[in-house]
Amino acid sequence: MKYALIFALSLGLTVGATAQSFHGKKITEDGAIPAPELVAKLGDKSEFNTKVQGTVESVCKMKGCWMKVKTADGQTMRVTFRDYGFFVPKDIVGKQVVFEGTAQQTTTSVADLKHYAEDAGKSKAEIAKITQPEKAVTFVADGVIVK
């Protein structure tokens, strides 16, 4: 163990450091706004290009094709990935992320909501309870950093 530590330090590695991973377009953290501030920044615009930092609340259990990020007042925002062009790891719940792209005010159809619930591993009974479209702020990301 002593030699492993010396080897790691000689390579300039920090023991116990967490690595970042990049998905989609390579982005930086510079200028990211906290997720709880996004709704106010969007205001009455239908869409807004920005960079956001937040905490992952849930991820598509099938292949990481979407994630939900915590926003203000215990709410979440669904983040999808531009043109289905990349995915995020399925084990990032609770991790900090930075993502860049387009925030939008959208209405999600009942069919899409049921599809998302299925992807999230919800029961048939929970899925059957989805009967109304959902108006919400959503986000289409071009790139994501998982910290």
Quick description:
The chain is an alpha+beta fold. It has 4 helices and 7 strands, in the order H-E-E-H-E-E-E-E-H-H-E.
Write the element-wise H/E pattern from the N-terminal end onward. HEEHEEEEHHE
Structural Rg: 18 Å
- SS element count, helices: 4
Q: Largest beta sheet: what is the strand line-up?
A: 3-4-5-7-6
The percent of residues in helical segments reads 10-25%
Query: Overall mean pLDDT score?
Result: 88
Largest sheet, if any?
5 strands, mixed, barrel
The tally of strands reads 7
Unreliable segments of 5+ consecutive residues: 1-16
Q: What's the helix and strand layout?
A:
Layout: H1 2-10, E1 21-24, E2 33-34, H2 38-42, E3 47-59, E4 66-70, E5 76-81, E6 96-108, H3 110-119, H4 124-128, E7 134-146
Parallel strand pairs: 2-3, 5-7
Antiparallel strand pairs: 1-7, 3-4, 3-6, 4-5, 6-7
Give an overview in words.
The structure is a single chain. This protein is an alpha+beta fold and 147 residues long. It is built from four helices and seven strands; from the N terminus they run αββαββββααβ. The protein has helices at residues 2-10, 38-42, 110-119, 124-128; strands at 21-24, 33-34, 47-59, 66-70, 76-81, 96-108, 134-146. A five-stranded mixed barrel has the order 3-4-5-7-6. Helix 2 (38-42) links the parallel strand 2 and strand 3. 21% of the residues are buried. Mean pLDDT is 88; it is low at 1-16.
